[in-house]
Amino acid sequence: MIKTDAIIIGAGPTGLFAVHQLGIIGLKCEVIDNLDRAGGQCIELYPDKPIYDIPAIPECTGEGLTNGLLKQIKPFKANFYLGERVEEIKQENDLWILKTNKGNFFSAPNVIIAGGVGSFEPRKLALKEAEKFESSQIFYSVINKDQFQNKKISIFGGGDSALDWALELSKKNEITLIHRRTEFRGAAHTLNEIKQKEKDGKILVKTPYNLKSIEGGMTMTGIEIENENGSLEKIKADYILSFFGLVMKLGPIAEWGLNIDKKTIPVNTENFETNKKGIFAIGDICTYPGKLKLILSGFHEGALAARACFKRAKPNETYRFEFTTASKSIHDRLGVKK
Ligand SMILES: Cc1cc2nc3c(=O)[nH]c(=O)nc-3n(C[C@H](O)[C@H](O)[C@H](O)COP(=O)(O)OP(=O)(O)OC[C@H]3O[C@@H](n4cnc5c(N)ncnc54)[C@H](O)[C@@H]3O)c2cc1C
């Protein structure tokens, strides 16, 4: 059981800044996100696009903003549990107990839900038989590229993820890149590299093809693909990597007994608490009259929720409002040397 002052569900921009707001008032937190990296929508949906409405930053990309937030919260040494989805929340006296899909348990008097539009999940292969090979021979993201050495890998997808991994893994593996359309959607320079590798015989490209079946009993040995004319082709495969994009699901959050209004959680704007004491909702997932789904709104909401967490985490202490410019204790927590 991992014990802390506040558990943050979601490492999007709102969840990341909430770590800061908890940290400067002396509260510890743990951050859990379903994705394998921090940044939420900024990193998953528009890492290279410029954002123009972050106060005092005239222009930054989704990735730049995420990196800036991670740097800003470094002094607080929050633990991140990535690739892990919070499944259950239960109350035990004044504490909330959270369980994740990886079987980790967390306990805290405060939970801050910064879950955005819900958990992002990979769009999976449509074939039923794919399920039994998931996490052993079929993957929807690459956590450790070194597990693939001298293997036959079939990569499905037509976007940047499929193309980038095809290039990267072709250095040490036999790659077949399969897409249901003739045209790929990836960046022009990546496509050129793929074409060159195809010419050099380093990557086999198959378009327009769909996965028809998977071969093998306990172990997958190959796949069969079908083109639009119905002609079939067998390919030997040790692994399938599938990159069909992400779907957003409110997911388990809908089952926690919280009031839900059109896939968002109504909150009290004094402290961003939900209908459950000690459970707060901030960022895109919360709703209240006038709510703007903007990053800067999430920052403000996190600041107020963090102050409310203080009362429950340290009931015998009095919270004192302090400016970061002048507070000695905040400077100490930030590790500022004067
Ligand atoms: C294309 C595009 C452009 C945009 N441009 C701008 C802009 O210019 N300016 C602006 O202010 N805003 C912009 N936005 C909106 C902005 O990205 C969102 O307002 C912001 O990302 C919300 O942050 P968040 O932290 O609340 O949620 P998110 O960024 O959605 O992050 C939520 C995180 O919670 C995780 N999560 C959810 N449920 C669980 C669970 N049960 N367990 C574990 N993890 C979970 C998710 O995996 C996700 O990583 C844009 C959005 C898009 C799509």
Count all strands and give the number: 23
Name the average pLDDT. Answer: 93
Specify the biggest β-sheet.
5 strands, parallel
> Which oligomeric form is depicted?
single chain
The global form is: elongated
Write the layout of secondary structure elements.
Blueprint lengths: L1 E2 L2 E4 L3 H12 L4 E5 L6 H5 L5 E2 L8 E2 H12 L5 E4 L3 E7 L2 E6 L4 E4 L1 E4 L5 E4 L15 E2 L12 E5 L3 H10 L4 E5 L9 H12 L3 E4 L2 E7 L6 E6 L4 E5 L2 E4 L3 E4 L15 E2 L12 E3 L4 E2 L7 H19 L14 H7 L4
Parallel strand pairs: 1-9, 2-3, 2-10, 3-6, 10-22, 12-19, 13-14, 13-19, 14-15, 21-23
Antiparallel strand pairs: 4-5, 7-8, 8-9, 11-20, 16-17, 17-18
Helix pairs in contact: 1-3, 1-6, 4-5
Report on this structure.
The protein is built from seven helices and 23 strands. It is α/β, with parallel strands linked by helices and 338 residues long. The site of flavin-adenine dinucleotide has 37 residues, from α1, β3, α2, β11 and α6.
